[in-house]
Amino acid sequence: MKSRTMLVPMTAVVAMLVSAAFAWSQEFKPSRQIEAVVHTGPGGGSDIFARAIAEMLLKEKLIGQRMQVVNKSGGGSAVAMSYLAEKKGETHTVGFFTGVWITNPLTTKEATVTVKDLTPIARLVLEPAVVAVKADSPYKNMKDFIEAAKKSPNQLRQSGGSVTGRDNLMRLLIQKATGAQWTYISFPSGGERLSNLLGGHVQMMVIEPQEAGEQIRAGNLRVIAALTEKRLPSMPSVPTIKEQGIDVTIIPQARGVVAPPATPKEVVQYWEGVFDRFSKSASWKQYVDQNQFEEGYLKGAPLNKFFDDLTVLMRNVLKEAGAKVVR
């Protein structure tokens, strides 16, 4: 009788041990350096963002391995996205996405990889943009620039990145709304885009505050419009583009993290946990404030819905701007 009464508790103990062992086997922690893929060259918005994230994750002791940023520029975002797709099932690679990862496949037939082919991890922020010129530029506001562009069609130049990125799409929308025409010059890296503006080789650019902040503070750039619905708290004297009489759709910019296709569930859970904690950290909150980001943390089903909704919005914006949509 005694042995029979011991059977149930011993069985329970064994079950608990098996369950614990199984749970332990499902845990994931990086065992080597993590590859962080971005679609811009050094000095570009995604490059700056990813390097800042990598540094903060270590500072907050949220990951035990270093995160190495890998620049895969070219084809808009196609090269970076294809590189991630080829890493199917890889557990030590992530990518930092922006809105161009949505728009590029919509307009480029060769860009066959979409965000839906990758594994969503987290949307971290929504990011505003501004229109900037050199500090000694004759253009004090958007009206000045538009009038000059109308007087000399296609003589003024705007530096930017991918032709499917927000900077060029805003150009197309503004041109359609005003009738002005100017040229778009695409550069592979943010550093080149900015240096060409500072060097006087182009006259204007659409840029994110985090990318332009140092040059604005140094007095080398003048911001002539905020591409936002409301004025930026850090630039209260800069009117929005709509306040200046140009009624255009404001294109959102999101920044976040994806992983290769078929990333194991335990790896996804690991990264979701990391970024859950990271989004509440002191380093992150300070970084968001300093760069005029808008908090926009999403994961799981809400992130998938965001991708779907943004795809619909950007398809409509592309059509409105007169761009050819291929899918």
Protein architecture, described:
This protein has 327 residues and is of the alpha/beta class. It has two domains: 34-126 and 253-321, 3-Layer(aba) Sandwich (D-Maltodextrin-Binding Protein, domain 2); 130-226, Periplasmic binding protein-like II (D-Maltodextrin-Binding Protein, domain 2). Helix content is 44%, strand content 17%. The protein has eleven helices and eleven strands. The protein has a six-stranded mixed β-sheet with strand order 2-1-3-10-4-11, sandwiched between helices. Strands 7-6-8-5-9 form a five-stranded mixed β-sheet, sandwiched between helices. It starts with a helix and ends in a 6-residue tail after the last helix.
| Poorly predicted spans | 1-8, 17-25
Please give the count of helices.
11
- Major sheet: arrangement of strands: 2-1-3-10-4-11
So what's the CATH class of the largest domain?
Alpha Beta
Can you give the mean pLDDT?
Answer: 91
How much of the residues is beta strand, in percent?
15-25%
Summarize the helix and strand pattern as letters.
HEHEHEHEEHEHEHEHEEHHEH
Our measurement of the CA-to-CA distance between the termini, rounded to an integer number of angstroms, reads 72 Å
Q: Return the CATH architecture of the largest domain.
A: 3-Layer(aba) Sandwich
What's the CATH topology name of the largest domain? D-Maltodextrin-Binding Protein, domain 2
| Shape, per Cα inertia axes | globular
Number of strands: 11
Largest sheet: 6 strands, mixed
Class derived from helix and strand content? alpha/beta
Radius of gyration: 23 Å
- Summarize the amount of helix as a percent range: 40-55%
| Overall tally of domains | 2
